[in-house]
Specification:
heterodimer, A: Alpha-Beta Plaits, 7-stranded antiparallel β-sheet, B: alpha/beta, Fumarate Reductase Iron-sulfur Protein, Chain B, domain 2, 5-stranded mixed β-sheet, 4-stranded parallel β-sheet, FAD (chain A), Glycolate oxidase (chain A), FAD-linked_OxidoTrans_Type4 (chain A)
Chain lengths: ~475, ~425
């Protein structure tokens, strides 16, 4: 808890923005899209980098926690102010968005919406590929902090693959620049990549230089229906080893197909165990040929039906079904725990099998739908938060999902980040020494532990709690 | 203590807040989040505040008052919500809980009682008020008042609204409407027309044109006796008991006539009528009757399209844009029909504005009680309107119509632009005057 004097001092520093201290305001910045309520002492909104830097200097001097935040769509607890202190609402920093079509870069401030970058790039025939499904709400600052990805990650990679330069406020309140406007840059340590995905624990990103690529002129969609989930996993592996790299490969399991049909009938086969949706992008002639080839591979692996929608409307219809999964499954029970444990592509069928086992063992409502092509399967557990006994089973199941992913050579998080939710499992993946090296980096950067404290690294005895 | 919290949870409909997963998909469509720029004035933020009260973390309900009062209730968040959160229900429960605990000063209490319980539900009182307005406009008093600047001294910025008040029809015209208007040509449907309270008092011409259009496309139109105010303004102000009384009166009044549909031309009223079954869900003897009422209740655009559209014979000059009624879009889910009707006008130059689904800031009486907040939203809207270079702004709700007129006035676009109800525009194109 910071005192009245500190609030007064903060108000003096923030000359151009707002300092929010009302109870209603503080509660409104106490959550994200994951779990838990954590009340900050004060919320600051300003577009002035110098003011933010001065606030960080102040926080470092008086050891006040600082929590940078975008629009709090995080599923891992990234922006939660778990130790109180100051929240920086960086969503207000949406004032810079320049696309340079000669250097093929976009210069952005952290509060710009990801979808606004997509639109600005497209206007000039370019593309910013990372496409988290919340891109119309999420800020680029949040994407950078959590190193977000989306369906296109399969072909194009995730946020870190498109960041070549940053402006960052260090925990000491200095403003530094990393990287630059060139794709090639090997001058010293790659601090850019270190900051991206560090979840706000090493500094506050106040500007980013993003790499853009030419927008593919055409796309085709293939939908394949399978009687067996494991077969669909095999189809995914087979397509990927056939010399074709689709832009997206999305999976819907039977539970999600049934949920969609119950929610908004879309003519999906409810007796099928899996549907995969594949998008190919590139030159019109190339994608046509690739679509045919993908269809052939799917049939060979045992798809009972393969559809290649022809008109834009038909294509939109197919993808709409995929989009309906999220809203459809929460009609079953209100609480949704979205996991993003990820496995190597070759292990997709095995991971599918393990997920079914976990579902039965803990008697939970588990739905699998996600970016299957990159092994980021998105098992979602649907539960009721008010049922404590059920939530305990869910917590155990989540732990076992992590374990399965790691045993298969995968990782805890493909795109959501560690935050508070997965911190207790870090050592399981990294080992004690691996985790210790990360801690040492954190301590060297931020010896007073003021930057987003309570994230990534678990407190002794910390466990996953979804209640 | 625990029992008190449990009771409070029930009162606030706390269990409804559990379906909010706080994904934030409502943020980009929320007008107040956009103009006020903080989570406290977002749907997700407001729902969270209700949660916090229900969980006993916030103990003083007045903490919720400002965020709840500054919500427009446009319910665009419900359309954007991927998990189907019933935001409207949560908002109304919170407002009712706040109203119940609030100690209004005597004059405010008296005013609320008079307005909510005496004026809106009473045709005769509204008629009297409108008579006064008619006199004011006809006798030249309006011109005098405007010239002398007296109107600027009105409270609640009412002077701003004085300038855009529509010219009302004379008392005798208003009281001598036929009760049954036959269909022109072959009869397709028998419908009752819901005249509304403000709509009928202030915009009787639009009501008359609506009836004429319905008759023109083949509907026999009935005006029902004992119809009363829909109750929307009551429900939005936390006066739920009064809203229920009005709903029951309307259900009973319309049950007396054998009609296939109950037609209204005001998005906001229509939305209220559309939710009578929710409003009366706890009253078994009324719930089924409410459902039947809801089944019949339709926006005029739906029935005009169902009758095969409006035969039109006139090309109208200039470019047209359409400012949607939020409650028509987000509550009644009527989105296609108005556009279909506009596009069917011969030679129409129709252009959609940016953020076409964003509220204009009218929101019932929001623009009067929260004038500054409303004007910020209106100014955003007018920027998008201006970008279209439209000369006619079409609306589907009286509140929106007044707000658009106010926007035109504020932007000093009076010479080149006008705001109309969809019905007026269609009537113009169909040669019905």
């Amino acid at each position: 808890m910071i005192d009245k004097q500190a609030i007064e001092d903060i108000k003096k520093i923030v000359k151009t923005g707002r300092v929010l201290t009302e109870e209603s305001d503080r509660y409104s910045y106490s959550f994200d899209a994951s779990f838990g309520t954590h009340l900050p002492d004060v919320v600051i909104q300003t577009q002035e980098v110098q003011e933010l830097a001065e606030l960080v200097r102040y926080a470092n001097e008086y050891k006040i926690p600082v929590y940078p935040r975008g629009q709090s769509t995080s599923l891992s607890g990234g922006p939660l102010p778990v130790k109180g202190g100051m929240v920086f609402d960086l969503s207000v920093m949406d004032n810079i968005l320049e696309v340079d079509d000669e250097d093929l870069v976009a210069i952005v401030s952290p509060g710009v919406l990801t979808s606004a970058i997509h639109a600005a790039a497209e206007k000039k025939g370019l593309m910013y590929p990372p496409d988290p499904s919340s891109s119309h709400v999420s800020t680029i600052g949040g994407n950078l902090a959590e190193n977000s990805g989306g369906p296109r990650g399969l072909k194009y990679g995730v946020t870190k693959d498109y960041v070549i330069g940053l402006e960052v406020i260090t925990p000491q309140g200095e403003i530094i620049k990393t990287g630059g406007r060139t794709v090639k840059n090997v001058t010293g340590y790659d601090l850019t990549k270190l900051i991206v995905g560090s979840e706000g624990t090493l500094g506050i990103i106040t500007k980013a230089i993003l790499r853009l690529i030419p927008k593919p002129p055409s796309s085709e969609t293939v939908m394949a229906v399978f009687n067996s989930l494991v077969d669909s996993g095999r189809a995914i592996s087979k397509v990927l080893s056939s010399g074709i790299l689709p832009a997206k490969m999305e999976l819907m399991d039977q539970a999600s197909i049934v949920a969609v049909e119950n929610y908004q009938p879309s003519n999906l086969p409810v007796d099928a165990e899996a549907i995969i949706l594949i998008e190919l992008d590139g030159h019109p002639a190339a994608v046509k040929e690739e679509a045919e080839q993908v269809a052939k591979v799917c049939r060979e692996v045992g798809a009972r039906e393969v559809i290649v929608p022809q008109t834009p409307q038909e294509k939109a219809e197919v993808w709409k079904a995929r989009k309906l999964v999220s809203p459809a499954i929460v009609r079953i029970k209100p609480t949704k725990i979205s996991e993003d444990a990820t496995v190597p592509r070759s292990q997709i069928p095995e991971m599918c099998r393990r997920l079914q086992q976990i579902k039965e063992k803990y008697n939970i409502h588990l739905v699998v739908f996600g970016h299957a092509g990159d092994g980021n399967l998105h098992p979602n557990i649907i539960a009721d938060k008010s049922d404590i006994e059920e939530m305990q089973r869910v917590e155990q199941a989540v732990a076992e999902i992590f374990q399965a992913a790691i045993e298969l050579g995968g990782t805890l998080s493909g795109e959501h980040g560690i935050g508070t939710m997965k911190a207790p499992f870090m050592e399981m993946e990294l080992g004690a020494s691996g985790l210790d090296m990360m801690k040492r980096i954190k301590e060297a950067w931020d010896p007073n532990n003021i930057m987003n404290p309570g994230k990534i690294f678990a407190e002794p005895g910390q466990k996953l709690v979804l209640r | 203590m625990n029992q008190m919290l449990e009771d409070l949870k029930k009162e606030l409909k706390y269990e409804k807040t559990n379906s909010c997963v706080q994904c934030g998909y409502c943020l980009p469509v929320c007008p107040t989040y956009m103009t006020m720029g903080k989570e406290t004035h977002s749907p997700r933020g407001r729902i969270n505040l209700v949660k916090m009260v229900g969980e006993g973390r916030i103990t003083d309900l007045s903490v919720l008052e400002e965020p709840m009062n500054l919500c427009l209730g446009c319910r665009a968040c419900e359309t954007a919500c991927p998990t189907g959160v019933e935001y409207g229900t949560i908002l109304e429960a919170a407002r009712a809980a706040i109203t119940r605990r609030k100690k209004f000063s005597f004059p405010v209490k008296t005013l609320r009682n008079t307005i909510f319980k005496k004026v809106f539900p009473s045709k005769s009182k509204l008629n009297l008020l409108t008579d006064g307005l008619w006199l004011y406009q006809k006798t030249g008093l309006q011109k005098v008042a405007q010239k002398t600047g007296i109107t600027r001294a009105l409270p609640f910025n009412l002077g701003q609204f004085e300038a855009i008040t529509p010219t009302v029809t004379s008392p005798s015209e208003r009281r001598n409407r036929f009760k049954r208007i036959p269909a022109k040509g072959e009869k397709k449907y028998t419908v009752a027309f819901f005249t509304g309270c403000i709509m009928d008092a202030m915009f009787q011409r639009i009501n008359d044109l609506s009836i004429a259009l319905l008759s023109h496309v083949g509907c026999e139109v009935l005006i029902v006796e004992n119809e009363t105010c829909c109750g929307a303004l009551h429900a939005h102000s936390g006066e739920m008991d009064e809203a229920k009384v009005l709903a029951k009166k309307n259900i009973a009044a319309f049950e007396k006539e054998d009609v296939e549909f109950i037609i209204n031309n005001a998005g906001g009223c229509g939305a209220m009528l559309h939710e009578y079954d929710h409003l009366l869900a706890d009253e078994p003897e009324w719930h089924e009757r409410a459902k039947e009422f809801v089944r019949k209740s339709k926006d005029i655009s739906q029935i005009l399209v169902a009758c095969g559209g409006v035969p039109m014979n006139k090309e109208l000059p200039g470019r047209v844009t359409y400012q949607r009624s939020c409650h028509l879009t987000n509550v009644q889910k009527v989105t296609k029909e108005p556009v279909q009707l506009i596009e069917s006008i011969p030679g129409i130059d129709f252009i959609e504005m940016k953020d076409k689904d964003m509220c204009c800031g009218s929101a019932g009486i929001y623009n009067i009680v929260n004038y500054d907040a409303s004007m910020e939203i209106l100014d955003e809207k007018m920027k998008n309107v201006k970008d279209t270079h439209a000369t006619t702004i079409i609306t589907t709700n009286p509140g929106c119509l007044l707000q658009m007129k106010l926007g035109i006035e504020r932007e000093k676009m009076g010479k080149e632009a006008r705001a109309l109800h969809l019905v007026e525009y269609l009537a113009e194109a169909a040669g019905i005057v």
